[in-house]
Amino acid sequence: MSVHGHGSPDRHPEWRATLDDFQSGDEAMRLCLDLARVAARTELPTLILGETGTGKTLLARALHNSSRRARGPFIAFNSAALSDTLLDSQLFGHERGAFTGADRRVKGKFELADGGTLFLDEIADMSPAAQAKILRAVEYGEFERLGSEQLLDADVRLVTATHLPITRYKETEHFRKDLFYRISGITLRLPALRERPNDLASLMAAEIAAASAQLGKPIVGLSRHAADRLLGYGWPGNLRELKRVIHAAVAIAEGDVIEEAAILLEPEELDAPPAAASRPRAPAAGAADGDLSLRGAERRHIAAVLARFDGNKRRAARALGLARSTLDRKLAES
Asked: What is the pTM of this model?
């Protein structure tokens, strides 16, 4: 779950994903997805908490795509490191002549998101003045373009996110308590990758498949040592780092199997975070035979889910989002 930057959804098919497209073998991620499905059935403002690189933007898009606003626009905006004037202009628009260089009227993100969802990333980095204007727009649906006194309105569902511990911010003067309570109708906590050991093998396999298709290389998986190194790593950069490392490894690989020499981890990142080091790790799925193909990852994931439910196929099929007959077929194929 990782999307960053801007561009046409046609160039990023994952942006069309709904919450039903996501499955997980880890409790923390399943709880997040279950609550996200509840949020998608409501109009409540939703706050997404998660470390950098965990996929907050992709989760916000999936929430929008799963809601009644799916046919409306999804407008994403990163709130970090902008002056109040630029933030005003970006969020609420401006009139011609509102400031130096404003040679035409421009619509802001609130206006562009009318009838859809506005996603404000890194909202904890906003200044108090910007927070006050956001609060007014969220509470009353009213705003003014910079350089204008005309009140405008927009029907917007607000989704916000931050990588910071925003619950601490609301206890200080930096973040307005009234804004915090207004944007956190439902709060989703997106777990770090190190908290998703049961998902790691399948996420790696999916990135290998995507990178292989993109680069036109017939990579079938990883060697045992390469798999051991990746599965034993703490992933401080989360899904964003996973994508970078796997795509680089596929590009470097000379054969159809990725060897350990192709795994490029930054020296300062080699030590796993303390939280990961102290947490018991799940068995390194696939490390024993080096099989991290998509089929192998799926087989191991099904086995893990079956084990979680003590072999109960009905409950396992429900958790996997599969029909019982489909699960039986996949078990027969393995």
From this structure: 0.75
